[in-house]
Automatic annotation (TrEMBL):
Membrane association type: Multi-pass membrane protein
One GO cellular component term: plasma membrane
Compartments in which it is found: Cell membrane
Protein name per UniProt: AI-2E family transporter
Biological source species: Arenivirga flava
One biological process term in Gene Ontology: transmembrane transport
Keyword set, alphabetical order: Cell membrane, Membrane, Transmembrane, Transmembrane helix, Transport
Segments traversing the membrane: 37-55, 61-79, 91-111, 174-197, 237-256, 262-286, 293-310, 330-363
InterPro entries: AI-2E-like
Disordered: annotated span: 1-23
Keyword Transmembrane helix included in the entry's annotation: yes
């Protein structure tokens, strides 16, 4: 006799209540939504992982192509300006490329001559400062002996030697040989010239790889991404110039002998947001310490920190923020992630890639491409002089 009587008539057989419930109703709506989101997120992460893996494997090609595209975004307004004044586009492209080569070559020559003149004196003063620093550590409450300091220094050098490839990322493996470096340089120059001259045809060809119904969205998203990259390059040039002038002028006022190379290195380092100018500014502080002592080095440190505050609180929000429309937190996370994945090259390309993706996704999500009824341009010989205009 059961203490739990059955429902209904006694002659009815036992039935599992779940057998009469549709299979879809056994899963709660929240779990179905979570499952739908989960597999889609896994697919997206899988695609992103495959893309990153391919980029890392092909970094010897990807890095020069990215460099060429960034330089094309910088020089494209100059090419358009010359072309609008009835200069043939091919001549405008050549003139812009020669201008870039002249500027880079001039800065390189200036830095090389300045450093070669002061290298011997800097080395001698560095050794003197090193000996003074050892005496300071020995006389300090820490009582660090020369052997202990040398052991710590050897450990740091060993760490750098063991991790130098991961620290520099793809740049080291790409430029490990003269042949690889020259081939990458030629590839970057070739990409620059083709994008400046034939950019519109290249873009139209890429868009036509997509289905007809998606071409309007892809075309508009590509234009939005290119606009963001162009804005990033121009804004970064301005920010880097302000950093270089501020720190270089401070070094010149203090009478440091390598003020011009310091300014050039700060300008180049500023293309890595937040971290580049700090690292190169540290060099200015070190030179001030070696040549003029502690208090001038402290003043140089205050100048570097002041320039960084100006960049972080004024230039980045007002100039860079309006150009790329990416939150500073996203910029920092992108730079850190890019550095972890690809070293210096990843830090350099992280922000323009994030800015381009942000603009492209925002354009597609806005739905403005549905209003586009104008057909895409077809590459022809007649339209070729206008190619490369963004």
């Amino acid at each position: 006799m059961s203490f739990f009587p059955r429902r209904g008539r006694a002659s009815e057989p036992d039935q599992d209540p779940r057998s009469t419930v549709p299979e879809g109703e056994l899963v709660t709506p929240g779990m179905r939504i979570a499952g739908a989101w989960s597999w889609r997120i896994l697919v997206v992460l899988g695609v992103v992982g495959v893309v990153i893996f391919l980029v890392m494997q092909l970094r010897a090609v990807v890095i020069p192509v990215f460099v060429g595209v960034l330089l094309a975004a910088l020089l494209n307004p100059l090419v358009d300006w010359l072309h609008h004044r009835r200069v043939p586009r091919v001549l405008a492209v050549v003139a812009a490329a020669l201008t870039l080569i002249a500027v880079v070559g001039g800065l390189g020559y200036l830095v090389t001559t300045q450093v070669s003149r002061g290298a011997e004196d800097l080395s001698a003063r560095s050794m003197t400062a090193y000996a003074d620093f050892q005496e300071f550590l020995l006389d300090s409450p820490l009582h660090v002996t020369s052997e202990q300091f040398q052991e710590l220094l050897d450990q740091g050098v060993a760490y750098v030697e063991a991790n130098w490839q991961s620290l520099l990322g793809g740049v080291v493996s790409f430029g490990s040989g003269l042949t690889a470096f020259l081939s990458g340089l030629l590839l970057a120059l070739f990409t620059l010239l083709l994008v400046l001259y034939d950019g519109r045809n290249i873009g139209s060809w890429l868009v036509r790889l997509f289905p007809r119904r998606a071409r309007a969205a892809v075309h508009g998203a590509a234009r939005a991404g290119w606009t963001s990259v162009s804005g990033f390059v121009r804004a970064q040039i301005l920010v880097a110039t302000v950093d270089a002038v501020g720190i270089g002028l401070g070094a010149a006022i203090l009478g440091l002998p390598l003020a011009i190379p310091i300014a050039v290195l700060v300008f180049l380092g500023s293309f890595i947001p937040f971290f580049g100018a700090i690292i190169t500014g540290t060099l200015a502080v070190f030179i001030a310490l070696v040549y003029q002592g502690l208090w001038p080095a402290v003043i140089m440190l205050i100048i570097v920190l002041g320039v960084q505050q100006l960049e972080g609180h004024v230039l980045q929000p007002l100039i860079m923020g309006n150009a790329v429309k990416v939150h500073p937190l996203a910029v920092v996370l992108a730079v850190v992630t890019g550095t972890m994945l690809a070293g210096i090259a990843g830090a350099l390309f992280a922000v323009p890639i994030v800015a381009a993706l942000n603009s492209m996704i925002a354009f597609i999500a806005s739905g403005r491409w549905r209003q586009q009824s104008k057909p895409l341009p077809t590459p022809t010989a007649e339209t070729r002089p206008e190619l490369g205009r963004s």
